[in-house]
From TrEMBL:
TM annotation in the entry: 39-61
Compositionally biased spans, kind Basic and acidic residues: 14-30
The name this protein goes by in its record: Thioredoxin domain-containing protein
Organism: Agromyces kandeliae
Alphabetical list of InterPro entries matching this protein: Thioredoxin-like_fold (IPR012336), Thioredoxin-like_sf (IPR036249)
Region called Disordered, residue ranges: 1-30, 287-306
One protein family per Pfam: Thioredoxin_4
Keyword terms of this UniProt record: Disulfide bond, Membrane, Oxidoreductase, Redox-active center, Signal, Transmembrane, Transmembrane helix
């Protein structure tokens, strides 16, 4: 019986060829998908690498800044405070240039003035004891012209403040005050120790440090300097110099701890809590300097023969 217009059934060979062709097409489509996925994966990896590199670069930029100049009025790595008509004044000096070295202060060698030099870390509890005990005495001596006071802020306890780098931030803030408002430095220094945080705590925030600067009478321009950690590189360099180089105008090979206190080049190692002991040391050191200056009289010119 005839089947009319129906197509003949494919042979076994035809079915086998059709299956092979379909498999070939599927394999080709799979290869195309694999190539497309590989391209997308590679592109994603490249983008991820670029993003990570940008993040690392940003972190490095923020943490390792290019070396810049030091603060003005701290050419010796410290600020020199003397008596003036308005009370305590800072001796103005140019900034240490980037990569430059400090210039040692020339002390008063008259034998009648105590040249007091202190190296402090604002997180150091012993510095806090010394400052609390002797700040008023030093203020009086400087105001009356009986002493000069040179303060060197350094940061040897940067890793002792729960990751906030308080010592470094505080020393930077002191440098900011020295540059922007040197007349407020003595009060700023005193207030920083009056509000001193405990070691191993996070320390004061930048906003709290800025409030202290304002209380001391510093200009508002100090704020951005504190937030930007403008003198971070200088603090690190000054600290390294203090710990590895001889201390000018003394026989000390370096600073080995804070506070390091010198009077006319002689190191004070007495009580940190007895103001009378420090005052006695100042008088003794000044008296010895006076005796030395008297022992070397100025030569009298020989009169010419008539």
């Amino acid at each position: 019986m005839s089947t009319g217009g129906s197509e003949p059934r494919p042979t076994r060979n035809q079915r086998r060829e059709a299956a092979r062709e379909k498999a070939r097409v599927l394999r080709e489509e799979q290869r195309k998908r694999d190539r497309r996925n590989k391209f997308l994966i590679q592109g994603g990896v490249v983008l991820a690498i670029v993003a990570v590199a940008a993040l690392i670069g940003g972190l490095i930029f923020n943490s390792v800044r290019p070396e810049g100049p030091g603060p003005q009025n701290m050419a010796s790595d410290g600020i020199l405070l003397v008596g003036g008509e308005g009370g305590i004044e800072a001796v103005e000096t140019p900034a240490i240039p980037a990569g430059g070295e400090p210039t040692a202060t020339v002390p008063d060698e008259s034998g009648t003035v105590a040249n007091v030099v202190v190296y402090v870390d604002y997180l150091c509890p012993f510095c806090g004891q010394f400052e609390t005990t002797n700040s008023a005495t030093m203020r009086t001596m400087v105001e009356q012209g009986a002493a000069t006071l040179e303060i060197h802020p350094i940061a040897i306890l940067t890793n002792k403040s729960a990751g906030t780098q308080y010592s470094l931030r505080a020393a930077n803030a002191a440098a900011c005050v020295a540059e922007e408002s040197p007349e407020a430095f003595f009060d700023f220094n005193a207030l920083m120790f009056e509000n001193q945080p405990e070691e191993l705590t996070a320390g004061l925030t930048n906003d709290e440090i800025k409030d202290i600067a304002a209380q001391a009478g510093a200009a508002s321009s100090v704020d951005s300097c504190i937030d930007d950690t403008r003198f971070k590189s200088w603090v690190q360099d000054a600290t390294e110099r203090a710990l590895t180089q001889p201390i000018p105008n003394s026989e000390l090979a370096s600073v080995t701890g804070t506070p390091t206190v010198l009077v006319n080049g002689k190191q004070y190692v007495g009580s940190l809590e007895d103001p009378a002991e420090f005052q006695a040391f100042v008088l003794q050191a000044t008296g010895e300097s006076y005796s030395e200056s008297e022992a070397t009289p100025t030569p009298t010119p020989t009169p010419e023969a008539g």
